[in-house]
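User: Please predict the structure of the protein below. I'd like the answer in structure-token form so I can feed it into my own downstream comparison script.

Assistant: Understood. Taking the following sequence of 451 residues as input:
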Amino acid sequence: MKSFFLTRRFFLVVVALLVGLVVAFFLPGWLAPVQLALGLLVVLAGLDTVLLYAPAREGVGSVFGRRVLGDKLANGSDNDIAIYVENHYRFPISTETIDEIPHQFQRRDVLFRAAIKPGETSVIRYQLRPTKRGEYEFGAVNVYVTSPLGLVRRRFRFDESRVVPVYPSFLQMRQYELLAIHNRLTEAGVKRIRRVGHSMEFEQIRPYVPGDDPRAINWKATARRATTPEAADALVVNHYQDERAQQVYCLLDKGRVMRMPFEGLSLLDYAINATLVVSNIALLKHDKAGLLTFSHQPGAIVPADRRSGHLRRLLEVLYRQKTKYLETDYERLYISVRSNIRQRSLLILFTNFETLYGMQRQLPYLRRMAKDHLLLVVFFENTELRTYLDGPADSTQDVYNQTVAEKFTQEKRQIVRELNRYGIHALLTAPQNLTVNTINKYLEFKARGLI
């Protein structure tokens, strides 16, 4: 009986019959037709019940449903979910499918209606966007079926329970990886960086083609190859490649300043997603990617490497990172960098400075790291201030809000200028543009030969 339900159509007919009985009290001639209609309703409801509960075929259920999703979900990205509902009845059915999604999503729009012909399959597709890493528990798939009569509804409950982990956005990582492989990163907003000079790492000698730099012609190799009249005019040039095996470390601040939310994700989650993408791009560029996390005490350390499986190791470490409620200790960060990173490296520090005074307190440690490494400090714009800066000032309170917002915005820009004054590279970016802007900086450093 737990799977048996009466439909809205059934109750509407019952209400209509009750109205007919009231009318028959005043008009006795209506009583017989109303009684006949009541009997017909009972017969049709019984017939509908038999149709829905009769077995479709031997060994096959009347309706089959299943949910299809990946082994893990990507944090901050739209993950595709599919539900397949098969009709094994001999007649068309109408279905209402309710998916028991994890409570973290707080969604109430996961009811899907479909009409399915006999022997056919309906595919329901929707997307889920998690905003926190961790384990998410999916429940059952409930399919409510009605026949063409539409008086009785039968529920089919398919146990599709499973726990799915939510990892840093590997979907975003794959997107940038495909674009990088096909040299189409500009489609994602990555700028084309003009190379200053050329790298001094020699790769090979190849034939000259129009457009090559004449200064790269190898005259000695050309003369040695000119042994036949056909090869006498065949010039060859030296071909250089980017410096390889350079170390790129992402330093993740897990202090309370990184708990600030933006569009559901914390700043730490934005930094984690960007770290995964930048590390993958560095590996594709034949560099070594490493990771160091910190807060009021040292955190996880993954030495820079580019061996097979290294990206998977980074993903697992990033999955377990959580923000702390205490203030970050930059002195411990400096000691950890000095102890664990001996070779000159590119250090991409993901943090957040809200005030110039807050940055100046940490400036001595940043300057010490910048002496031994190429340091890029990445921090975030407060995009909510745009609400006040771009809005009209219709009252004294609005003028005050805009003045305060402009003060905070100017202070962020002053932080960038102060860091640059001491030879520290700085990147002030909106959270949604973090990944693209960080990749641009990394490619710029590669093109300029700064690493």
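That's the full token string. The chain has eleven helices and 21 strands.
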